[in-house]
Structures are given as C-alpha cells and as structure tokens.
Amino acid sequence: MDAVINCAAYCDGLRVANVELDKVHHTLNQPGQFVWVGLHEPETEMLKKIQDEFGLHDLAIEDAHRAHQRPKIETYGETLFIVLRTIQMKDKRIEMGETHFFLGKNFIVTVRHGSSVGYMEVRSRCESTPHFLRKGPGFALYAVMDAIVDQYFPVVDVLEQDLAALEEKIFHEKFRKETTAKIYRMKRQLLEVKRVVSPLIDICNRLMRFDLKVIDDETRPYFRDVYDHVIRINEMVDNTRELLGTAMESNLSMISISQSEISKRFAGWAAIIGIPTMVAGIYGMNFKSMPELEWSLGYPVILTVTFGLCAILYFRFKRSGWL
Prior knowledge:
Layout: E1 4-11, E2 14-18, H1 24-28, E3 33-40, H2 44-54, H3 58-66, E4 72-76, E5 79-90, E6 93-104, E7 107-114, H4 120-127, H5 130-133, H6 137-150, H7 152-172, H8 177-208, H9 222-283, H10 298-320
C-alpha cells in the first residue's frame, strides 16, 4: 500500500496540480504556492525522502517514524512539529491513533499512524472554500486539528451515556461484580481520554501566540476555536470523571447497605429461632420435678407460648425493617 495518500500544490487557495514527491522542491520554489502532503504509516525510506525534500530535522523524523508520542508541539528552525492523538469509539472500546504535522511557510505534511480517520474529507472541504485556503498551510493545519478535536465529542458522549447506564444499575438493580468492573474500565478509558485532551490546551495556546512566525496573523484566531472546543471537552471529561468517582463511592455504599440489610435479617431470624431452641433445650434436660410434665395441657400450652413469642418477634422485626 502506497504511504502517500495525497500530494498537491495550492496557489491562491486553489489546487493547481498534483505533485510527485521527488519534485516537491521545485514547487516550493514557486512564489505564492504551498504543498500539502498526506502520508499514512510511511516507512523509513519514505520519511527520509520527505526529510530531504522539506529539510526537516532528524529528531522530528525519528518521532514521526516511531509514533506512540505524547501530544506536543516543538520548533525546529522555521518548521513546527506537532503531535496529536486521535480517538474513536469502536464496539464500545476506544481505539487510538496519532497524527503528526510538519508545518513550514509553504508546506504542511500530515503523517497518520494507527486507528485514525483519513483527512480526504477535510481536504475537500478546504478546497471548496478557497477564500480560506488561500491563508496558507496554517489554515490547513487548523482544519485538520479541528476535525481531530471534533472526533473527541462522540467518544465523550458515549462515555457519558455509559455513566448514566451505570448509575441506573447502581441505584435500581442488585449488586453485581460486573458493575464494579465496568466502573473501573470506564475510569481507565476516561484517563486515556484525559491524557489525549489535556496537552492540547498548551498546544493551542502556543499556536495562538505571536512568536510562531509560521502561523499567519490572519490564521491565528482560528486556533481559538479549536482551543474553545478543547476546553469544553476537557471540562466534560473532568465532570464525567468526578461523577464516576461519586458513582464508585455510591456503589460501595450500596454494597455496605446491602450487607447491613443481610446482617439484620440474619440477626432477626436468629432471635426468632432462638426461642424454640431455648425451650427445647430446657425440656431436653429431663428433670423429674417439672409440674407441667404431669399436666394434660402442658404440651399444647408450651407450643402455643413458643410459637406466640416467635410470631411477636417476627412482626416486631418486620415492622422495624429487619425482615
């Protein structure tokens, strides 16, 4: 499978030509043009070729090849290297990928790794609005970042729905081990999402600052929109984590209450059973000097008193909620 998904040149917001990777340096010398290259899990040779064509730093190329990087932004001369993590929900499981960006004055290179949706739709949307795309590669960076961040919302929504279902089970169903296991798995998922989202706040802050010359002044405000989305997602994740922690505490409290109820039932039945046990123990000692042994009504009276006391205790315990 070819690692190069797309390689095109743009001028004044319009796609002017598809460019062969070996000839990118000729296009970079053309004034007013920039190149947008899309790669998917490229091999070492392909990244070496990209490095030669765009003059990229060795360390950035090494990170782009290894993947499994934390979200970050680094500056190498006049080139920005940005790493974002992508997340999507598949079969109730979070699958993660990575997208690496190399951004210069007249080029942008995107490198996708792992489970990540392609950006052909984003590119098409940008090409349909040339008045925005003429702002340069900085706007292309914004468009892809915005698409990545928008993918976070459905994942967080699914986690919030799962939390609502867990709360329903905790308060309206009997205790099950599976509920505690689901809470733990969900806490791990939220922690993974938090690790993805949290660094984006600093990345967006850097992109909005004026010390990055690669980002045009007209493009910089667009990253404020991405920043707002990231803040919202981060707050949603924090709220869900807090509610999930409360759900865990509630689950443990419900378990304690359930165990206490069981203990009270055991105690109540033990008290009731204790009466006939005591009576049977007394009459099991076979003393001769027990007047009621010679009384014709002794046996039914003792049984009546025993069962009567048991019934009194039963109704008292039932009224107090112990049974």
